[in-house]
Amino acid sequence: MLSLSCTDSRPKGSVGLEEEVVSPATKAEDLIESSDFNNSNSDNLDDSLTSLQWLQEFSILSASGRQQVISTNQHQSNLFEKQLSGEAPASPLAGDLASIGMPLTPGKPTATAVPALCTLPSLVAHGHCPDEVDYKTNPHVKPPYSYATLICMAMQASKKSKITLSCIYKWITDNFCYFRHAEPTWQNSIRHNLSLNKCFIKVPRQKDEPGKGGFWKIDPEYAERLLTGAYKKRRMPPVQINPVLKNQLRMISQPVMTTTNVTGVLHVSPESQQLLEEFEEVIGVDQNWDPRLVETNSSDRWSTVKGRKRKQPYSYRAGGAKALCRSSSPLLAMEEPKILGSFKGNFDWDALLNSALNGDLSLNEGGPMSPITQDQDLMVHSIHVSSLEASVSNAESSMLIETQKDSNVDFDEETFLATEFLRSPWTEEEEGNHPDFLCTSTININQLFDLGDSLSDDIDSKIGSLL
DNA sequence: GTCTGTTTAAGAACGT
DNA sequence: ACGTTCTTAAACAGAC
């Protein structure tokens, strides 16, 4: 059986960190030290179990057809029970499959009874579910993020206003195993993106600063522009198997069947929240920004480009098409905090949800942000869900529903993806303790539908009323 | 020589 | 069909 390591090999073009730049690893350590990343897996598991992210998936599925995701099997049931009882799986599924060279193609049927693992509702509806894949350890599948997004992620994770190219390389290779094994041509693409993408500004190195190259940061002017405009998104890049390993993947012949992922988890640790807020501060995000209040005339929105002179045979993100779907764009990454900012507002998500569901899915008696005791549980159509983070999940679940039903809001599922990433950038020091974004165990939505079609139809009808 | 940064070109994928 | 976004590849120049 194929077993691959992703810890040593680096592209020959890999570079080391410069001293003056705080490495992502260092910042990750800082984050770990100050955050609940120190929590045990079981803690994360608990969080995942308490999340109402399933509701988001539920709403998505209701809109797109639930049949595709409903399947039950004993394995899933057992896993679900284990999760409920606090017994975490020995290892993340994605990692397991990766360790045997199993190409994880999000959204495609796989043969084993793969539990529906998905903390990224954003991609579920589109057949992509990065959470099936632990990109940090899986060298086979190219992360479904654009290079610009990766750069933004690196910048954000660094918690610095500026970051060097080498630091970007470092962060990407540290956090995406694919790039450790890939040909270093991706670095060229990174540089290409930095040069051409208007989101990124080069900050020249001071004369007294040793080292090569300059620094890069996200253009605040561009970010500011985003405040008055909607983000533009693009498709999710197709799943790409690392060509270096492609041949090895052929060795794997066992067909696998997986259900489309229908569950998800959102965690917002206080530290991650702080990180996000710092990021917002850096890019000047208006905390009161409300996507619902933004007009959607994208052509006007993007008619003025930043004044920075730069020869650009073409420019990223200058277009005005109403592309709102799947992209992993830096704009998105910058836009998401704004969207989340609106979620931080006083909107009564609880009231919305409760009224929408006629009380049948009364998720939170105390409102989105009301404290919930450790032992307080949620009963969702007989599905017992402990509610450690029910408040947050509830708010965000409602959020999705709200935005989906509001046609004026170009809210995209991937917003959740990048947002969640920004909220919870993983750390490279926590190999065994995967941060909440990628490898969180989740509730199996199938359990929810075991209740029977009649009940599901009832739920569908209620959810449908929201859309 | 290596790294960094810019620029051009081509093509794929997707939306309109 | 066309435009946009994004990726990939390549060439080139300057800095270290």
What does the model show?
GO terms for molecular function: DNA-binding transcription factor activity, RNA polymerase II-specific; RNA polymerase II cis-regulatory region sequence-specific DNA binding. The strands form two sheets. A three-stranded antiparallel sheet has the order 1-3-2. It has 467 residues and is mainly alpha-helical. The radius of gyration is 21 Å and the shape is globular. The protein has 20 helices and five strands. It has a domain at 147-228: Arc Repressor Mutant, subunit A (Orthogonal Bundle). The protein binds a DNA duplex (16 and 16 nucleotides) through helix 10.
Low-pLDDT ranges: 1-130, 226-238, 249-272, 275-460
- State the total count of DSSP E strands: 5
Give the ordered list of helices and strands: HHHHHHHEHHHEEHHHHHHEEHHHH
* Helix vs. strand class: mainly alpha
Per the CATH scheme, the topology name of the domain at 147-228 is Arc Repressor Mutant, subunit A
Give the full name of the CATH homologous superfamily of the domain at 147-228.
Answer: Winged helix-like DNA-binding domain superfamily/Winged helix DNA-binding domain
Which CATH top level class of the domain at 147-228 fits? Mainly Alpha
Which shape, going by the Cα principal axes? globular
Give the helix level as a range of percent: 40-55%
First-to-last CA distance: 47 Å
Q: Strand-residue fraction? A: under 5%
Trace the largest sheet across and list its strands: 1-3-2
CATH architecture descriptor of the domain at 147-228: Orthogonal Bundle
Output the number of helix runs: 20
Radius of gyration: 21 Å
Largest sheet: 3 strands, antiparallel
Keywords: Activator, Cilium biogenesis/degradation, DNA-binding, Nucleus, Transcription, Transcription regulation
Pfam families: Forkhead
Domain Fork-head: 142-236
GO molecular function, one term: RNA polymerase II cis-regulatory region sequence-specific DNA binding
